[in-house]
Amino acid sequence: MTAALALATSLMWGLADFGGGLLTRRMPALTVVVVSQALAAAVLGAVVIAMGGWSEWGPQLWFAAGAGVVGPVAMLTFYKALAQGPMGVVSPLASLAVIVPVGAGLALGERPGWLQALGITVAIAGVVLAGGPELRGAPVQRQTVVLTLVSALGFGAVMALIEHASTTMAGLFLALFVQRVCNVAVGGAALFVQKKRGVPALPAFPEGGGRRVVVAALPALAFVGLADVAANGTYMVAAQTGPVTMAAVLASLYPVITALAARAVLQERLRLIQAAGAGLAMAGTVLLASA
């Protein structure tokens, strides 16, 4: 059960990242984050009302709020690091986010068996290699490395926080709603500051064309937001029903999904090191699932 839910998480996170990456080619990354999360918050709000989820309000939602505040910061530092590049360094470093929830699980007393430990090691190595690390070329700016490590810490913190945000199904939707509201609040504030500094919030098209681009992309933006929500939900359940170390590693296979989606849709060819990484990630998955 844990393995299946965590793999579903990696699938949805991978597709959400792929969709978000495509959208950022047409509009500012911060706009993609805010609009997609606002659409997801609207859907979740309706679900919470329908399920009577407000009855689950309690102090555990501070974990959801914390994840909602950290999430946009992680996304923005990640996008900024990608803009500075090279992507072949940024992507594998960002995947080190898995260390945070795995470390939290070990600190809380989880002790994986030798087969699980082997699976975790193999899967993490596969995720890093699947990003296609560049072993040659110009040196990477120190700021890029710092931004990437900050984003990895942020993504890992979201995974570690969100698993403690609810214990019931109604509470799950309420926690996801609170997380999304905080995402929109933080992202919206950053967007407002960015606009005050003269950076446009809409694509650079004249005479309202930028707004039409965003409206036309609403279905895709909704998919990105809802896929991210669903991934957070399945991860919460996976982390609560099984070892956090297993759930975190399997959920962190999303870079492999993103690479495969780019191969299928954009016809991007996988480098040999990426193909090897994908194979290792799958081998680690098998070991973890069979443990």
Automatic annotation (TrEMBL):
* Top-level taxon of origin: Bacteria
Checking Pfam families in the record gives: EamA
Q: Which UniProt keywords apply?
A: Membrane, Transmembrane, Transmembrane helix
Q: Under the cellular component aspect of Gene Ontology, which terms does the record hold?
A: membrane
Domain EamA spans what residues?
A: 3-130, 145-288
**Transmembrane intervals:** 6-23, 30-55, 61-82, 89-108, 114-132, 144-162, 168-193, 213-238, 244-265
| InterPro entries registered for this protein in UniProt | EamA_dom, EmrE-like
Q: Which PANTHER family match?
A: ACYL-MALONYL CONDENSING ENZYME-RELATED (PTHR22911), SOLUTE CARRIER FAMILY 35 MEMBER G2-RELATED (PTHR22911:SF137)
State the family named in the UniProt similarity comment for this chain: Belongs to the EamA transporter family.
Task: State the protein's name.
Answer: DMT family transporter
Task: Provide the species name.
Answer: Streptomyces daliensis
